[in-house]
Amino acid sequence: MPESIQTTGIAATAGSASDADLLAQTAIAVRAAASALRERFGDVVRYQTREELMRALAANDDAALDVLRPRLTLLRPGARLVEDELAGGALPPGEWWVLDPAEGNVNHLHALPEWAVTATLVRDNQPVLTAVHVPLTGETYTALAGGGAHLDGRPLHVSETTDLGLSLVATSQARPDEDEKVVRRIGSSITAMLFDALVVRTSVPATLHLLNVAAGRIDAFWQFAGARADLLPGALLVAEAGGRISDAEGRPWTPESESFLAAGPGVHAQAVTTLSR
Questions:
Q1: Domains of the chain
Q2: Would the annotation count 61 as a binding residue?
Q3: Which pTM was predicted?
Q4: 100 among annotated binding-site residues
């Protein structure tokens, strides 16, 4: 059992054969939903008001959900669906599908390539499995609690870097209209990392950064605030790829935490020190 899973609150029970089969079918579902979004991708979608922006975002969400809802309901009839990607905190007992039907939706509207479709099964507040498809690269990332993390079937491993000063790190805006205190904390954390890390990337969405942490391309990712749908898929992927998940002060992370940190074991403690300044 990986140490990171033991110490961070991410589910550690080895996936059963049925969960492995379920993950394979979930991956098919997110790829199908992503294909629907891919058909909508192309020119920049223009909007002049906040209302027009929200309608455009909702249209993308609905296009993917129209594919995801029936497929996931068929796979797990007793599981309920969480479709509000901005929601946070603990879930009621039982099984829940936590979905982000268009992760990086604003990027999609702006004809930028950084967007994906995610589906994560949560059982009694523990992530059991997740599937993330990135249509413009054709990559599918999957993780099963206790069963490892994979990219198109190939095992993923986090970075072995041990020096934050040689690390590429990343952060993401938590959400639009964020509280001023959180925004200022984000700004000060970026400044601190600019002094201590080699390169700092700042962009949305969080999930794509976390895919890169799980794949060993990025050494650490942090965020303040955030939502379940932003962080649960990547948290499970990074944990199963051998990384460490905590809050920014090194304490176990849960969806109720006010901050989030995912890193390779060699730089996790250094990142905590930098973010705690």
A1: 19-155 (3.30.540.10), 164-276 (3.40.190.80)
A2: no
A3: 0.93
A4: yes
